[in-house]
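Need residues for this backbone.
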């Protein structure tokens, strides 16, 4: 992968943990293998592959998918927290506050 591609990947993964970086990298490698295995031959090289290489072109796509998944998880977490706000509040002792119906 050329240095320009590596710098670009670093810029779009700012704030990613090592686990997220590894997930994006491994998913991209699996895509390369799957594309080659689909027809029993190596995937045809696209014009952009000549500049960044196949991995350099797949990795940003996988990172975008991972960011979408992360955003969906954040949305679900926010909704869960909002629902929990409606539940009876807990005292500092950890017991539920009684509410009258």
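Answer:
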């Amino acid at each position: 992968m050329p240095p320009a591609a590596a710098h670009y990947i670093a810029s779009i993964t700012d704030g990613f943990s090592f686990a997220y970086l590894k997930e994006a990298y491994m998913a991209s490698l699996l895509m390369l293998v799957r594309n080659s295995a689909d027809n029993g031959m190596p995937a045809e090289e696209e014009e952009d592959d000549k500049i960044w290489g196949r991995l350099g072109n797949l990795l940003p796509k996988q990172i975008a998918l991972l960011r979408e998944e992360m955003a969906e998880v954040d949305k679900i977490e926010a909704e869960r927290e909002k629902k929990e706000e409606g539940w009876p509040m807990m005292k500092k002792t950890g017991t539920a506050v009684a509410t009258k119906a």
